[in-house]
Design a protein that fits this description.
By secondary structure, this protein is mostly helical. It contains ten helices and two strands, in the order ααββαααααααα. The protein has helices spanning about 1-45, 55-70, 80-105, 120-150, 160-185, 190-200, 200-205, 220-225, 225-240, 250-270, and strands at about 75, 80. The longest helix has about 45 residues, at about 1-45.
Length: about 280
C-alpha cells in the first residue's frame, strides 16, 4: 500500500514537471512572438505600408541587385543563368548581413524590457533575428516567383537540398548573431565597425561564385572556413542539379553551425550583468 502511494506521488510529480516544462516553453514562445510584433511596430510604425516593410526592405535589396546583375551581365555564365546565380547567392548574403547588423546593441536599445520578469536577453535577440529571417524568406519567395514567371530562372530541381542549404545558413546566422550581440554589448568599437566587417566578409561568403570556378589551390578558403559558402553551394546543388559540381560538407556545416550556436547561446545567457538598464 505504501509502495503504491509512493509510485502514485512519483507519477504525479513527473506529470507536473512535464506540464510545467511545456507551459514554460509555450510562455517563452508567446513572449518571443510579442517581441517580434513590438520590434515590427517600433522599426516600421503604422504609417505608409507599415509592417509590410518587413518584406519590402529585403526585397528592395534582393530584387534590386537581381535586376541590375541581370541587365549588366550576360544571361548565362559557365552554363548557368545569371539571375538564378544572383538570387541563390544574394538572398543568404542579405540574411547574414542584416541579422548581424541588427544584433549590434540589441540589448542596450531594449534594456527597459528586461524589467519584465518573463523577458530575457535571449528572447530579445531571438525575436530580432527571427524577424529578419521571416522578412528575407518572404522576399526570396516573391523574387523567385517574379523571376520564374518572367522566364529569367527556373524552379529548383531538388527542393529538399535547396531548403536544407538555406536552413544551414539560417542556423549559422543565429549563432553568429548571438555572438555579435554579446561582443558589441562589451565593445563600442566593434559596434561601429560591424557594417564594414560584413562588407569585407562578402568574398568569404561565396555569394557570387561557385567554388568549382576558383583555382583548386584556393578552394580550401571557402570549403573549410566558410559555413555560409558551403550552405550556398548546397542550395545551388539543389537548384541547378547536374549542371554544377558542388563543393560542400554536411559534417562541416553541422559542426561549425552547432558550435557557433552553442557559443552564442552561452554568451547570451551570460550577458545580463553587462547590460546598462535604462
Amino acid at each position: 500500500m505504501r509502495e503504491k502511494m509512493v509510485n502514485k506521488k512519483v507519477r504525479s510529480a513527473k506529470k507536473h514537471v512535464n506540464l510545467t516544462l511545456s507551459q514554460s516553453i509555450l510562455t517563452q514562445l508567446r513572449v518571443i512572438y510579442a517581441l517580434i510584433m513590438r520590434e515590427t511596430l517600433t522599426r516600421y510604425g503604422r504609417e505608409n505600408i507599415g509592417f509590410l516593410w518587413v518584406v519590402g526592405e529585403p526585397i528592395l535589396f534582393c530584387g534590386g541587385v537581381t535586376i541590375m546583375w541581370t541587365l549588366v551581365r550576360p544571361s548565362h555564365e559557365h552554363g548557368l543563368r545569371m539571375t538564378a546565380m544572383v538570387v541563390t547567392g544574394y538572398v543568404p548574403l542579405v540574411l547574414f548581413r542584416h541579422a548581424v547588423v541588427r544584433s549590434t546593441k540589441a540589448y542596450a536599445v531594449n534594456s527597459s524590457l528586461l524589467y519584465h520578469r518573463l523577458v530575457t536577453p535571449l528572447d530579445i535577440i531571438t525575436a530580432r533575428i527571427t524577424l529578419e529571417v521571416i522578412g528575407v524568406m518572404m522576399a526570396a519567395i516573391l523574387v523567385l516567383c517574379g523571376a520564374v514567371s518572367l522566364g529569367y530562372m527556373e524552379l529548383p530541381e531538388d527542393w529538399a537540398l535547396t531548403l536544407s542549404g538555406f536552413g544551414f545558413v539560417v542556423f549559422f546566422t543565429y549563432g553568429i548573431s548571438f555572438i555579435f550581440s554579446y561582443l558589441t554589448e562589451r565593445s563600442d568599437l566593434l559596434e561601429k565597425t560591424v557594417s564594414v566587417l560584413t562588407y569585407l566578409a562578402l568574398p568569404w561568403t561565396g555569394a557570387f561564385v561557385m567554388i568549382d570556378w576558383i583555382p583548386p589551390k584556393y578552394r580550401w578558403v571557402l570549403e573549410y572556413t566558410s559555413p555560409i559558402a558551403n550552405g550556398i553551394e548546397m542550395m545551388r546543388s539543389g537548384f541547378f542539379g547536374s549542371k554544377v559540381v558542388p563543393h560542400y560538407s554536411i559534417c562541416f556545416m553541422t559542426y561549425t553551425s552547432l558550435l557557433t550556436f552553442m557559443v552564442g547561446l552561452y554568451l547570451c545567457l551570460r550577458v545580463r550583468p553587462h547590460i546598462e538598464l535604462s
